[in-house]
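Researcher: Here's a chain I'd like modeled. Treat it as a single chain, no partners, no ligands.
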Amino acid sequence: MPWKNFEKEACKFLKEKIKDKEININCFGGSDSTAKDIKISKKNKYLATIEVKERKAQIGQLVIEFIPKNSIYKLSKKSKDYEVKLKISNKILNFINKSPLYYQNISQSTQLKCDKDLSYDYIEKFNKLRNYDYFLSKNFKNQIKIINVKNFKRYFDVSAVFRPKPSGSRHIPKKDYEIVKIFIYEKFKLKVLQEKNKYYIKFLNDDKKNIQKIKDRYFFIKNDKYFLSIDEDDTNRFYIKKCSKTNNLNIIFEIEFISNEKDDDLNNLLNNLKD
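Model: Modeled as a single isolated chain. Structure tokens:
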């Protein structure tokens, strides 16, 4: 996965730049968006938290729900960091609630026609509550850049997008096994294998060329939608998952590193680590 490779690259970059052997650089990240990507410490003393973002990325996603009784949208408890986001999402929700019925009829991603400052204000508060000190990203030349969180607006463009989004998938239940087994064999000539309560199929290298694109990994059986989810530890193995039939309504903040400036805040970080 490109983002996962970039997180490894980011960690390697910092370890090459920070020469103090007493400084610990702990890299976390992964698919858990609530986890800090990189924490820097010295003798058990916290020094900095760095959030890793590709040149085009997302941040601070909100899951919202419509309340028919009041004809308004509110933050859903399905939002990751719900308690945190509850404190900082009022302005965005107030903007949407100026015309809530309009958003009820949206079936695809639509950019919110709000002032960029509204999005920047939300992201600034989100960064503060998450205790981010720096962002690590790449410019259009593929060069790694370190940005002090205070300079976020100077280096990143932002847009807020309203998007209906499926609420995820889960490993198929046992009751689906027989019908899925038949479909998989007819389509791929493969047997469905089982690992505890998880079902999967395994390809030879040359046999998975038709599912290289994510869109080709979805399939339908009757009215149910399924997905082949790649195993990160074995790229020939795909878990069979069942997609939810419900859609969450999301406000997604899309960011893009746009600065052409030669300098960044790397020296600022290195100097702060000396204090």
